[in-house]
Amino acid sequence: MKKIYLTLAFLSAFCFFAKAQFNIGAGATYTNYAGDIKKAAPGVHLRGNFYIREKYGIGLGFSYSTPIKSTYTEDEFAFERTSSFMGLSLLTNLHLIGTYESDFSLYFPLGATYQMGKNKYKFNGNLPSATSIDVADESLNGFVLNLNIGLQYRIGNPYLFAEAGIGLAAGTTTYNSRDGYTANNNPAPGSTVLQLGIRIPFGSGVGGGVY
Questions:
Q1: 137-171 pLDDT, tens digit each
Q2: Positive or negative, the Cα torsion across 54, 109, 161, 204?
Q3: pTM of the predicted model, to two decimals?
Q4: Would you give the DSSP letter of residue 209?
Q5: Exposed, middle or buried, 9 (CB in 10 Å: 0-12/13-18/19+)?
Q6: Distance (Å, rounded) from C-alpha 37 to C-alpha 188?
Q7: How many Å is the Cα radius of gyration of the chain?
């Protein structure tokens, strides 16, 4: 009896994944960061999408932006700041026009990204004698909510795609009026992003077509 149950479970899982469709996408990004950064940087992204229904899928992605350098002055001292970001995202892909296997489709990637960022500071100049300045690194880790719109167009086996969207910082800021201390439990900045790339499908489509 156990062997029968195991066989049925195996067949069910096989049928489930036989109908599923996977695709892997990669390309370039251009991200404009808000907050204190207020600058844009190019980068790269990777994403794997899993579909079991024609109009709905789940994607797991990774993104990396090239470091952003900026200079500023404070109390007549000059500093150089290098900001770096990478992120892990979990998104749902909702197709409004077409499906994942259509020649053309309009879809909405919605979800969240855990953004890993850091500000590195360096004093730019010569310090006067007996002068000390704290230039400790600053963490910008936190969650960002993603609201995107995407288009994809099939050219043979692969798809070309373009996505544009916004990232909304999901943290809250608290302020202590007694000592003037401000704390943010999620310092990740919001952003706007444009992504361009190519997507390669694998497996069987829901309609039965094999790519």
A1: 888 898 999 999 999 999 988 999 999 999 998 76
A2: negative
A3: 0.74
A4: -
A5: exposed
A6: 11
A7: 23
